[in-house]
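Quick log. Single chain, no ligands specified.
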Amino acid sequence: MSRALPKEDMIGLIRDKALWMRRRAFRMVYEKQLGHLGGDFSAADIVATLYFGVLRYDAKRPNWPERDRFVMSKGHATGALYTVLAAAGYFPEEWLDTYMRNHSMLNGHPNRRYLPGVETNTGPLGHGFPVALGIAIAGQITGADYRTYVLAGDGEQQEGSNWEAAMTAGNRKVSNLTLIIDRNRLQQGAGTEETNGLNPLDDKYRAFGWDVVEIDGHDCDTLLDVLGAPVGDRKKPLCVIANTVKGKGVSFMENNVKWHHGVPNAEQFEQAMRELA
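-> predicted structure:
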C-alpha cells in the first residue's frame, strides 16, 4: 500500500498519479468533446494526495464500513474523480474510454448507483458539503473512527446551503470532518470575486467555529502533511483553503476562465500531451 512508503517516495507516487490523471482526463474530454478540464486540473493534486497518501479504503470492498469517506462536492470535476478511482483500482481503466457516452456508468456527474467508490451523487453545487457533514455526524453518533473529507469549489461557496452546513459543523464541533476548498478563483464565466466576492474566506470559516489552514493546493508535500494529520486531538472541523490554478499544467488553460468547460481541438490536444509528458 502507498501509505507504507517513505514520505519522499509517497510524494513521488502522488505526483506521478496526478500527472497520469491529467493526461487521461484530457484525453477523455477531447474524445467526447464534453467536460470541465479546468477544475479537473486544479483539483488533481489534492485528489491524488487523498487517494495515494491519506484515505483508508479497500477498492475491492467499496462499502467497507471502516473506510474513510470522500465526497467530491464539485461534481462537475468528474475527470479528476473518475481517473483517481480507476488508478486506485475501483474499476478497470478501460471504463474511462466510455466517459459520458450512451449507457456509460461514467456520467457527466458522479452517480453512486452506477460507479463503485462514489459516496453520494453530486452536481448541484452546494449539495455535497451538507451530505458530507451528515456522514461525519453519523460517525460521531455511532463512535466510528472513519474520517470524512469533502472537496468543494470556491464558486460553490456562494451557495447558502454551504453556510448552513458550516454553521452546523462548527456548532456541533464535528472534528472528524475536513472541508477542502479548491480556491482557483474562477467559476463559469468570471472570477469568483467579480461574481459574488468570497474574501476574507478564512475569517468567515473561523467565525463559524472552524480551524482554518491556507496552503498551496499543488504542493503535494504540504497537502500530505495537512490532510494526513491525525484528527484525534482536533476539537473543531478543519477547513483547508487550497490555493490552486485552474487548468494547472497546461499553459493555454492556466488561469483562463473559458476552460471551466472548454474542450480542446486536435492541435490543443497535441500541445497538452507534450506539456504533460
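The two ends are 26 Å apart (CA to CA).
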